[in-house]
Design goal:
The chain is of the alpha/beta class. The protein has 2 domains: 198 residues, Rossmann fold; 89 residues, Rossmann fold (3-Layer(aba) Sandwich), CATH 3.40.50.1100. The strands form 2 sheets. The protein has a 6-stranded mixed β-sheet with strand order 1-2-10-7-8-9, with helices on both faces. α2 crosses α3 and α2 packs across α6.
Amino acid sequence: MDWPNLIKTASARVTPYIRQTPVVTFETRTVTQPVTLKLEQLQHAGSFKTRGAFNTLLGTEPPAAGLVAASGGNHGAAVAYAAQRLGFPARVYVPEIAGPAKISLIRACGADLQVVPGAYSNALEQAKAWEEKTGAMQIHAYDAEATVAGQGSCFVEWEQQGLNADTVLIAVGGGGLIAGALGWFQGRCKIVAVEPERCATLHAALSASAPVNVEVSGVAANALGAQKIGTICFDLAQSTGIESVLVSDAAITQAQRRLWQDLKQVVEPAGAAALAAVLSGAYTPEPDERLAVLVCGGNIASDPLA
């Protein structure tokens, strides 16, 4: 698969529809050098997922039955936003653990929202059933070529903004975002996968040498709660090489606090997970290692101004 060209094409396609998110410098006592952050939680609909949604929809003609997606919340919001912007009907299935803020956001974007008991896998089952029944076009949250290429546009943009890093740390759920990074960088910098201890799909797959089901729980489960890593991500991780680290729920919530205290950025647990690896020492850089962290989502559980 020629991922660099696929991602370059996706970047050109989605640029008119997405927001160029800012890059800032973050000072921390944990490491001696400043850390570069890309604030992708400021993207339309609150996460990087909007890139993959637009790349998918702009690269095809949806059927009359419209679109269907399963999501822990952020992907559903991204599909709903992109569908509304482009004038397509969309039905989105989310589990109850998606939380009220994400559920409200999806509704506000005009999707036909279906909240189901259980976890992301249960929402995906119902989305597949709707696809089979109606012929609606399924937009997978992470394990689809167009989704991964769209997420990769984030790293094209970051390099255009002057990214100068030895190592980029990225949170992992199903693996679409980090697959985009692996596909774009092709070994030009080290990619570190950061996962919560209580939903570590890629870590488990790398240990087992194959994607395996994991139990999902914890503070970031409604965004990083896929039960199995995507095949695209796993194949790229094996072929290009990756370092995997785990972080505790306590480390994630502490990183959320630091982002608010130091930068006044409100970030959901999944969005703070990659930074948590640096702040907690789960990832220990070399003394002169230049670090970059992607802050990936800002749809917290409740409206802080409600």
